[in-house]
Structures are given as structure tokens and as C-alpha cells.
Amino acid sequence: MTVRSILDEKGYDVQTIGPDATLREVMAVLAEKRIGAVVVTDADRHVVGIISERDAVRVIGRDGPARLDDPIRAIMTTKVVTTDGNETVHQVMEHMTAGRFRHLPVVQAGKLIGLISIGDVVKHRLAEMERESTALREYILST
């Protein structure tokens, strides 16, 4: 299964924000949309960063609530690992495990087209395992 097949099923909608937004604004988006990360893009949808709920908690826990009014360009992760629609679920799992992150922006021709989360990957991997199990069970019963 590829990243594109996951996006085809779940949709290509992804929450973005500009680098001048404040951490307070990011926190409001995370809470309102009930999501774990926001991709930071420029006006042309090029990925310039990502900020997760874990990033926000770490900054506020370390520096205090005064950081809520800081622009996220000072807080976001700028070396963002991305994927394209052709990578497999296994390749995405390897990226997430190696980098210890839970969200992977999907980029095509340099522009953001979607976002894959660890939840998406696990959901699709479990569905794949269930299909394999069902096929094996049917094969055994038919012999």
C-alpha cells in the first residue's frame, strides 16, 4: 500500500499555518481541529516547517507561557522530513520510527498535498493484516 492510496481514502485536506502565526494561534488550531500537528507553509504551499503538540508542550514547559505570543518560526521544526505519494506504508513507518515523529507531510512537485499521521499508518496496516488473514482463512477452508 502506498501513501497515495492512504490519501485517496482519507482525503487530501491538511491544516496549514504561516510562519508568522503565534504559538497561541497554533495551540488554538490544534485544539479546535483536534489534531496533533500543523504544517507551516509559505504562500505557495512549500513546506517551511512543522509544529506539533509535543513541540508546544516542550517549549511552554521549558520557557513558560510567555512563549505563547512568539512567532512559530522561532519554535517550529525546520528540517522537515517529507514523503511523496509513491512511498509504501513500510517506508513511511521507517521514517517515523527513525525520526521519532508522528506526522509526515506529503509533497508533490515541491508543494504540500497531504499529511500522513502514525494513526493513518497503523489503521491501514491493521486493515492490510486483516485482509491477509481473511484471504488465508478462506484459502485454508477451500482446500
From TrEMBL:
Q: Which organism is it from?
A: Ancylobacter tetraedralis
Against Gene3D superfamilies, the record matches this protein to:
CBS-domain (3.10.580.10)
* Record-annotated CBS domain positions: 7-66, 76-133
Q: Which domain of life is it from?
A: Bacteria
Which InterPro entries does the entry link to?
Answer: CBS_dom (IPR000644), CBS_dom_sf (IPR046342), CBSX3_CBS_dom (IPR044725), Diverse_CBS-Domain (IPR051257)
User: Which PROSITE patterns does UniProt cross-reference here?
Assistant: CBS
Q: What are the record keywords, sorted?
A: CBS domain
Q: What is this protein called?
A: CBS domain-containing protein
- Is Nuclease given among the entry's keywords? no
